Amino acid sequence: MTLDSALGKAVITTPPRRVVTLGLGADDLALALGVVPVGVGRADWGGDADHYWPWVRAAIEATGQPLPERITVYPELDIEKIIALRPDVVLAPFSGVTPEAYAQLSRLVPVVAYPGQPFLTPVDTQIDLIATALGRREAAGPLKARIHDALAQAARRYPELAGKTFAYVRADLGSGNFAAYVAGDPRVDTLTAMGLTLAPSVRGLHASAGHFAHYLGFEHADALGDADILVSWFYTPEERDRAAALPLYASIAAVRRGAYVALSDPALVMASSSGTPLAVAWMLDRLAPQLAQAARHAQAGGAAP
Question: Which of 44, 169, 174, 274 holds its CA 20 to 30 A away from the CA of 119?
Fold first, then answer.
């Protein structure tokens, strides 16, 4: 079979046995499809003390199989280590693999990369690509349904989310910009599947050139005023507090009302960014109550103008 990507074609002639995963979510999806990778991208931020995602580690340990090798991704992908693992395929549909790294790797092993932009591949598309690459295409539909059912169950458990508008942004204090995540990004699609509605101010936006989010300056913070709920993430609690102290940030309607979810737990940030089955299951009990509380604050404060 041949799988196309923005970086080239992956030709896979037999079902792979030795699999390496890169980026966010590919390890999760491989496990959900019954394949334990021999190598995974090192989880430097949001991982446990050994640099595995907590939800991935728990799933692998439950199988009784050895934990995979961890591959350095930043600041430079450790291509030599990948090749030393003798993979039959590298799965990276939601990653930042560069054209240069792809060119080196793909000469030696099929690489399933992103079909459009880096880090902007919807989860259903990731599932289709990985299930096909692993020779398990028939499992794609049930796996999608499993994720959608989990999110629909959360929507039923927290009916206050229904119809509330939201924006999910990252406040970059250094550049003075918001990165507004757009439809197709798993963190946005996950919240939408839980009953929230993307705010009109964000709904028509597209990722800025060379990025996986739309960038707008802090001076345009009032554009987010139609969001009943604002969700954001920060590297540290200190960064979160610095943002909250900025008058332009504090003036956003959702922040004023307390309808604001400010994430600074690295593992929860990464789980909420993934949208894949193990991450969703791990994330829901931690994030959904915070969203529901924000929705109640939004309701008490009145709908956004």
Answer: 174
Q: Which amino acid, one-letter code, is at 77?
A: L
In the chain, helix, strand, coil percent, each to 5? 45, 15, 40
All domains of the chain in start order, with CATH: 2-135 (3.40.50.1980), 159-301 (3.40.50.1980)
- Tell me the residue type at 232: S
pLDDT band of residue 210 (cuts 50, 70, 90) is low
**In whole angstroms, what is the distance from residue 131 CA to residue 91 CA?**
10
Q: Which amino acid is at 3?
A: L
DSSP assignment, residue 104? H
Which tokens is 75 given?
């600041």
Q: Which of 53, 139, 131 is nearest to 91 (CA)?
A: 131
Please count the other Cβ atoms lying within 10 Å of the Cβ belonging to residue 96: 18
- Kindly report the average pLDDT of the chain as a whole number: 95
- Do the beta carbons of residue 134 and residue 197 sit within 8 Å? no
Contact between 118 and 112 under an 8 Å Cβ cutoff? The reply is no
Helix (H, G, I), strand (E, B) or coil at 113: coil
CA angle 259, 260, 262 (to 5 degrees): 160
Q: What is the pLDDT of residues 266-279, one digit of tens each?
A: 999 999 999 999 99
**CA–CA distance, 300 with 113 (Å, rounded to integer):** 45
Q: Angle of helix 140-157 relative to helix 277-301, nearest 10 degrees? A: 30
User: What is the SS3 assignment for 284?
Assistant: helix
CB count within 10 Å of CB 61 equals: 12
Paired strand residues for 179 = 170, 215
Residue 84 has pLDDT above 50, yes or no: yes
Chain position carrying tokens 């999910």: 168
Q: Please count the other Cβ atoms lying within 10 Å of the Cβ belonging to residue 193.
A: 19
- Report the pLDDT value the prediction gives residue 20, as an integer from 0 to 100: 99
CA distances from 49 to 23, 52, 141 (A): 19, 8, 34
Q: Among 48-57, 189-198, 218-227, whose mean pLDDT is lowest?
A: 218-227
